[in-house]
Design a protein that fits this description.
single chain, alpha/beta, Alkaline Phosphatase, subunit A, Arylsulfatase, C-terminal domain, nine-stranded mixed β-sheet, 17 helices, globular
């Protein structure tokens, strides 16, 4: 089966079929259908190179490393938008942000754009989503079985207070509230109830969590994923997404994992304090000078503390993820199950003096991507640049499932079968759409070009400058390459934000 691009779907006159394909239909749930199961494991804000198998000497990821050795690992995978909700919408719909219209973390996913759950559900799969997906509103987007933060709070009961203290403010990115609208009319119910911890910004540098390890969200997601596999895994083919929050904030791991990493042992990135501020866009320059969410991180000791806690969060997530993989083996489901591991975006982790995501630098826009298919040779590395927008058509092809609507991404199943072949590809990403400060990225070959509406462009040669410290844009000797990449970017999508006045937004 080949993937179906959005423009080909429409041009082929299949829009009517797409409108009908997601309507309720009788499912032929059978005990044995011969279909391959699909398990998608996700983290939030996992920096691409923070894997032992990628050569990181500090991180502890034994379970992901073992999975990588039986998978194809993509070294140059990118999210389609370096922020939670739009990126996840692209992963599950196969559409870029300007097509799925989930503009930011406060935008509900439009109902008309159907997800991988609709496609696999129509093919007879039981579809489960356990953990974070940042849907914004109450839609379940085709999943039969769904547990999220609100179910975790029901499990926690009075211990939810501990989590409210860790966040210290409303934050749907960390699941409190899970749905912004639930608090919009009456305000924050935890106001004046939380214990303040003296943080200078909205996000704490971090500490050991006061929530017992067995009660934390990672443990909840792992435990309920195992329950799903034991209860439903042998009755019919399944699609299960197990989605963890860590290493996203709050940077408050369980003590067992925090003890693995000492702040004084952490190294600051080589790029720390070395960026030429005159050669980067204003947004980047301002973020380097002052990190609004956590101003303390300008202090080197505090920065090392954050790095240690971030690594602890990865170790805790890896440990929980390992329990899901162990259950898959114990239930004798592994041989019939394709497995994917990825993240919605990365984490700057002090690179360039930046933190969190939101940028097109490799640490932020790059993501880990492991794909294991029991029918394909394992343990290979693929260096072809790819995008998470390509994941849906790829998994549909591997499982012989038909997408239920148009998709922008092309399947990379061929790269799984021939991972040593590095193809010439174009990878796109976008951020902050419908805004004066919108930006768009193209990775083509060795080069990455970022267009900023109403600011200077960025151009990096990733082969000679993998740390992205030497902006080639605007220099006479690079004019030809810059114009070439800008034309390719605009051929993909021409930003409508050009010319907007500062602060203005597109109508509608």
């Amino acid at each position: 089966m080949t993937s179906i691009r959005r423009r080909d779907w429409i041009a082929g006159g299949l829009a009517g079929a797409a409108a009908l394909s997601w309507m309720p239909a009788a499912r032929a749930f059978q005990k044995s259908t011969g279909r391959k199961n699909l398990l998608i494991l996700m983290a939030d804000q996992h920096k691409r190179d923070c894997l032992g198998v990628a050569g990181n000497p500090v991180v502890r990821t034994p379970n992901l490393d073992a999975l990588a050795r039986s998978s194809v690992r993509f070294t140059d995978a990118y999210c389609a938008n370096p922020v939670c909700t739009p990126s996840r919408a692209s992963l599950l719909t196969g559409l870029y942000t300007h097509n799925h219209q989930t503009w930011n973390n406060a935008t509900p996913w439009p109902y008309e754009h159907k997800t991988i759950a609709h496609a696999f559900g129509r093919a007879g799969y039981m579809t489960g989503l356990i953990g974070k997906m940042h849907f914004v509103d109450a839609q379940t987007h085709g999943f039969d079985y769904h547990l999220d933060f609100n179910d975790w709070y029901q499990f926690l009961g009075p211990k939810t207070r501990l989590y409210a203290d860790e966040l210290a403010r409303p934050n749907s990115g960390s699941g409190l509230p899970q749905i912004d609208d639930l608090w919009r009319d009456e305000g924050d119910p935890w106001r004046d109830v939380r214990e303040n911890d003296g943080r200078q910004g909205s996000v704490a540098v971090g500490r050991v969590s006061r929530i017992p390890e067995q009660d934390q969200f990672e443990s909840f997601v792992a435990r309920e994923s195992v329950r799903f596999l034991r209860t439903h895994g042998r009755k019919q083919p399944f699609l299960l997404i197990s989605s963890f929050l860590k290493p996203h904030d709050p940077f408050m791991p369980a003590e067992r994992f925090a003890n693995m990493f000492r702040p004084e042992d952490m190294r600051l990135p080589d790029t720390w304090g070395k960026v030429d501020l005159s050669r980067v866009p204003e947004e980047v320059r301002n973020s380097i000078r002052h990190n609004g969410p956590t101003p303390e991180l300008s202090n080197e000791a505090e920065a090392r503390k954050r790095i240690a806690l971030y690594y602890a969060g990865i170790a805790q997530m890896d440990d929980a993820l390992g329990k899901v993989l162990a259950a898959l083996r114990e239930l004798d489901l592994e041989k019939d199950t394709a497995i994917v591991y990825t993240s919605d975006h990365g984490e700057m982790l002090g690179e360039h003096g930046l933190w969190q995501k939101f940028e097109f630098y490799e640490s932020s826009c790059g993501v880990p991507l492991l794909i294991r298919d029991p029918a394909i040779a394992a343990g290979a590395v693929c260096r072809t640049p790819v995008s998470l927008v390509q994941l849906l058509p790829t998994l549909c092809e591997l499982c012989d499932v038909t997408p239920v609507g148009p998709v922008d991404g092309a399947s990379i199943a061929g790269d799984l079968r021939a991972p040593g072949r590095t193809r010439d590809t174009k990878v796109f990403a976008e951020y902050n759409l419908r805004n004066y400060r919108a930006k768009y990225m193209l990775r083509h070959g060795d080069y990455k070009y970022s267009f900023w509406a109403n600011d200077i462009a960025e151009l990096y040669n990733l082969r000679t400058d993998p740390k992205e410290m030497n902006n080639l844009a605007g220099l006479p000797e690079n004019k030809g390459k810059e114009e070439e990449l800008k034309a390719e970017l605009f051929a993909w999508y021409k930003p409508p934000e050009i010319g907007l006045k500062p602060g203005a937004k597109l109508p509608g």
